[in-house]
Every structure is written in C-alpha cells, then in structure tokens.
Amino acid sequence: MDFEISEDRRMLADSLGRFLTDQYGIEHRNVVAYEAPFHDPVKWADLAELGVLYALAPEDHGGFGGSGFDVVTMFEQLGRALCPEPVLPQLLAARLLIAAGADLEPLLSGATRYAVALGEIDAPYALDQITTEAKEKGGDWQISGRKSVVYGLGAADALLVAARHNDRLGLFQLDPSDADVTTYGMIDGGGAGEVFLDNAPAALLFDEADAALQDALDWGALALSAEAVGAMDAANAMLIDYLKTRKQFGRPIGTFQALQHRTVELGIEIEQARSITTLAASRMGTDQQSRTVSMAKNLIGRAAKLVAEESIQMQGGIAMTWEYPASHYAKRLIMIDHQLGDTEFHLERVMADLQPTP
Amino acid sequence: MDLTYSPEEQAFEAEVRGFLRDHLPEDLSTKVRTHRELTKDDMDRWHAILNAKGWLAATWPIDHGGTGWSPVEQHIFEEECCRAHAPRIVPFGLKMLGPVLLKFGGKAQQEEYLPRILDGTDWWCQGYSEPGAGSDLASLKTRAVRDGDDYVINGQKTWTTLGQHANRIFCLVRTSTEGKPQEGISFILVDLDTPGIEMRPIRLIEGGHEVNEVFFTDVRVPASNLVGEENMGWTIAKYLLLHERTNIAGVGYSLQALEELKSLATQIKRGGKPLIENPLFAAKLAEVEIDLEAMKLTNLRMLSEAQKKGAPGPETSMLKIKGTVIRQAINDLARRALGPGAAPFPSEALEGNAALVPEDHAANAASYFNNRKISIYGGSNEIQKNILTKGMLG
C-alpha cells in the first residue's frame, strides 16, 4: 500500500500549481471569471503551452496521463485556485473523442476548445431522458432540440452533442456557428450557455454512444469531486487562518470551543471527501467506476455544502463580501453540486445498487 | 387552550388582507415575488401608502402616529404583508430608532424626528458594527469627544444597510474609556451631510449592494443629538436589538417561500416526473414543512407570552436561531430544485422562450447566498446561543 502520488504527478501538480499561483491569483480570477468571455483566453493559451492538457489522455492517444489519478491531481490544483478556465469540457470531450477513435492532438494542444452539450432543461443529468433529435437525410445529419447550461460554450470552437435517433443516442460534432447560441456568466464564475438547434447540420462521430457518454460523465464527476477537494482545502486554510487572527472579546475567536469543534468537523469531512475521491480515481476503468464516482459526488456534495456554509458563518460578515476570497470559494463549493449530478441524483444511483455482498 | 385568533383578531386579519388586495401596487408585489431589487423610490412609495392608512409605524403608540397594535396584531400584519408580497418595511427609522426615541429620547427629539420618519423626510441607517467590533460590539472604538456644545466623532462603522439611501445615521460611539467597555458607550444621531463623513459601498457575495462602510473624520455633531445620557448607550443598544429581534423568526417569509418552493417543485421535471414526486426531494420538503409548522406555534406561544409580560424577553434568541435556520433550509431547496439552471446570473437574455427556469425563480441561487447573512446579522446565531446558555445553564 502506498498513498504517495507518483513523481510524474507530483511534477504535474507542482507545475500547474505554480502557474496558477503566479498567473491566476484570486484578484485576476475574480475579474475574468465574472466578465464575458468568463475566462482568460491568454491564460488559456499559457496553460495549454504548459502542456497540462496532455494529462487528460493516455499515451496511446497522444497524451501522457489519462488515469483517474492524473485527473484528480490536475483538478485539485484547478479547484485550489478557483480556476474558471474550461478544462472540464476538455476532459469530457477527450473521453468521447477517444471512444470515437478521433485525433486528440487539437484538444490536447489547446488549439481547439470543445464544449460538450448533453444536459437539457428537463433532463439535466440523466442520459435516458434526452429528447434532442437527430435526423439523417441522404447521409447528412441534422439536429433539433435545446441543450441547457453547456459549460464553456462561449469559449468553444467545436461542439459535441448527444442526440437521439431511432431510440438510440448518437454523438455528433457541430460548429457552434451553426447553432443559435446564448451565453452567460455563472454565479460562481465561469461561463456557460444555451444551445438552440433547429435542423443544425452535424457530423456523426459514433452511434450507440450511451456507454461512452456515461463514461464521460463519470470522468467529469470525478474531476468535479477533485476540484471540490482542492477548493475545500483552500477554503479551510483561509478559515483556520482567520480563526487564529480575528480577535473578539479580547482573544482569537479560534480559542472558543464552540468554533473549535465545528472547525474540526470540517477537517474530518474534508479528509473523508479526499478518501472517496481517491477511491473513485482508483476504480476508473473498472466495473465499479460509475458506482464509486456516484459515491464520491454524493459525499462531495454534502461535505462541500458544510464547508461553504460553515466557513461563511464562522468568519461572519466578512465572508459575505465580494472582496474577501472565502465568499467565492463558498459559491463554487455550493454550485459544484449543480453540475453533472447533485447529491440526490448520485444517491439514487448508489441506492439502486444496494444488494448485500454474496 | 385555544390556538386560534380571537374574533377581533380574525376580523383584523381580514381587514389587512383586504387593504393589501386594494392598495398594494402590483409592480411592487411582482418585484418582491420575483426577488428583484427594490429602488429607494419603491420603498418610499410603499411607506407612503401605509402611512396614509396610519399603518406604517406598527410598534409605535397611537399618540405618536403609530398603530397601537398588540404584538399579535403586529404579527398578523407582518404575515399578511409577506403573503401578499409587500415590500418589507425599512426597519431603521420605524422599528429601531422610533422605539428608542420613544423610550429614551427627549421630547424635543421625539417631536423633531418621529414625524420625519413617518412622512419619509428622513431615511435612517445604523452605525453599530465596526471592523474590529462585530459579535463583540461593546469593544467599539469610534470616538466621540466633547468639545464645547459639540461632539467630535472619529472612526469607522460597517455593515450599514441601505446607507446609500439614508440622510441620517444613528451611531454607537465611545465617550469614555474608563471602566467596563459597555459603560463608555453613547447613542448619538448624525446628519450624513455633516462634513467629514464618507460612505463607501460593500459588494456582497452575490454581487449586490445593500451594505456600506461609513468613515468619520473630525465630524462635529451638536451635543443635543445625544439620545439619553452620556455613557448609557449600551442600555439603549440592547433595547434596540431586542426590538430588532421581534418578528426575527420571519415565519411569514418562510411560509411564503415554502409555498413558492412547492409550486416550483411541481413545475420542474426530473426523470419525466414533477420534482415534487421525487421521494428524496419530497422528504426534504416535508421535513422543512414540519419544522415550520412547529415554528409557527413556537412563535405564537412566545408572542402571547410577550403580550402578557408587555415586552419580548431573551426567548427571542430562540426564534432567531430556529427561524433563520428554517428560512435558509427553504432557500437551499429552492436553489437545489433548479439543478444546473440555478447557475446563470439572472440575465435578461434568458427571459421568455429562452428562460431555463420558471422566471420567478431565476434569482434563487443569489437569494440563497444573500440569505446566509440572516444567521449572522442582528447578533449572530452563535451570540444568540450564548444568550440562551446564560438563561439555561446559568
């Protein structure tokens, strides 16, 4: 048994972490995350230049990573910095392009940014409820429907869309300029958008895509879990620092037992969150992948809410302000639960598989 | 034991409901219902409508232009206003300073200021907290030094809600550093036009501007603006906070928010069915309804007690703690119900056919984040627990 991360991943974490610390400080982040295009195209290019996107894919697909641990290492760093760059859609796209046998180099080099349009208003998380339809006419495909809250849409050069035909899900690629697109910023920073498709021309990447789409969603949920762990670590460090320095009634408020015990509870939940995320990372590619990812995303949803709400409450009014970074960590931690399946959605998936071990 | 309102109270309830139906402007109730920001003009307009009816100062006696209502009548009025989506009465003049002047103010102060609160000439704001004095309010450092017929004020106040609309501020200031910190505090009224005052906005977590910092540099205020005696400010502050805490349970807000949440949960679809039919979501909704039903009665029990004793007591801390926790739980579910649709900043680009959530609910996430304040302000829930601890454990 060895819980140390490998030398390669240590280097990935260090170089990404250093880049984000030096280049993506919270003040810069809070400017670009909340103003169109809701990320920083220059920093995106720098990030790609660093080569970190190659960690999203295994060697036989042109990358240098692609394991659960690579993804966790990377997204923990992104979470620590509250980075609003659209890396998550690249992970989903990479998994789908691998399944399609497509060339990943434009994605891994950062030259082409993808957005992945799966969720719909009445079906934000569940693939089996997708109603967007694909029609074939003489070998050409056209798609109609609406995709909702597509992350990184404004920044995207290419769009991957899940659509139904003959009761099966296919994966299609289309040019965002062929769709009617509305983009917006999100309350926790970063951009998303709505995609309105009215017989939009598309290329079929592959048919019977259900399993590949589920796999991509699992990887996305793993990445969000790791992002939350990184953000919780940073938020907790900020809280502890505040409790040690803020004085009321003549002493640091961290000397009050009522706050001490609550802080310790956060520490326990963060370690639990780290453990379940590590477990899920270890089971990527196994038959336990989906179930363990759902366990992680559920536990993360609960822990992140506790950390967000308690850190605001214990730091008090200051944590209610835009100027103080803790408020932005709290927003991200809460809103991660609104992405790729919330605590209840993933709880239901774990509940569906509760048979006793034979 | 009889848990219903008396016939007189029921008649009063019907009267209030009828008045709101006939006189609450629809544009205002729509704004409140959809959690849009109210302008100063919106709030002034609503105050004027209530004042014309004589219903603006619910807690004041009749001979000062108030309603003379009992605590139960005040409660009925608040509940009906919430149900009708009326704007909240801005509390600083009407619910905070008014009662203070009535109890501690001189006759001249009462005659000068109370009518100006009622007719909207003055908009008051509160100068209590400081960067270094939050939960430990008594450690406040803003100094007021007597100089002839004036006090000269230097220091900084913060969390001044809606100060951007105000022309006057009531402040707690330090007039003595002798003895216990509580013994050197005074309560003083300041005209915000006085030279040396600067107000700066504080942007909140969800992006809104409702609180401010106020800086005082050599601000000269007539000594006649002192309320009560010098160094008795702490007694006044405690009295004011107790008044601030009546109706702090916010039961009316919670009831309204729960109704909106139920309606939302019938409109949102998950797995091909309305969200309200999802057992996990329904269980959470049912739990908060149970808590709120109990809270309604806890609130009425304490109200009835206060009516008998003539004044609210420390049990209002219990109402504040449980009331805010329940409201926040409803806000939490209203945000969660939207799924990914909670994420966009409320945007005009997303109205009409482009809307991705029912339009009354586009600001649910913003409301959830903003309402994390309610367990912090007016004495944080931790401070309320300290107050209750003294009563229960000695």
What topology does this entry show?
The complex is a heterodimer of chains A (358) and B (394).
Chain A: H1 7-23, H2 26-32, H3 41-49, H4 68-80, H5 87-100, H6 105-108, E1 114-117, E2 133-137, E3 140-147, E4 158-165, E5 168-174, E6 180-185, E7 191-206, H7 210-245, E8 247-248, E9 251-252, H8 257-282, H9 289-315, H10 325-335, H11 343-351
Helix pairs in contact in A: 1-4, 4-7, 4-8, 5-7, 7-8, 7-9, 7-10, 8-9, 9-10, 9-11
Chain B: H1 7-23, H2 26-33, H3 40-53, H4 71-83, H5 91-104, H6 107-118, E1 124-127, E2 143-147, E3 150-157, E4 168-174, E5 185-191, E6 197-203, E7 209-222, E8 226-227, H7 233-245, H8 251-267, E9 269-270, E10 273-274, H9 279-309, H10 316-336, H11 364-370, H12 381-393
Parallel strand pairs in B: 1-4
Antiparallel strand pairs in B: 2-3, 3-7, 4-5, 5-8, 6-7, 9-10
Helix pairs in contact in B: 1-4, 4-8, 5-6, 5-7, 8-9, 8-10, 9-10, 10-11, 10-12
Oligomer: heterodimer
User: What is the number of helices of chain B?
Assistant: 12
Intertermini distance of chain B: 31 Å
The greatest interface here is: A-B, 47 and 50 residues
Structural class category of chain B = alpha+beta
- How many strand units of chain A? 9
CATH class of the largest domain in chain A: Mainly Alpha
- N-to-C SSE series of chain A? HHHHHHEEEEEEEHEEHHHH
**Ranges of chain B with pLDDT <50 over ≥5 residues?**
none
Q: What would CATH call the architecture of the largest domain in chain B? A: Up-down Bundle
Name the shape of chain B in a single word. Answer: globular
Measured as a percent range, the helix fraction of chain A is 40-55%
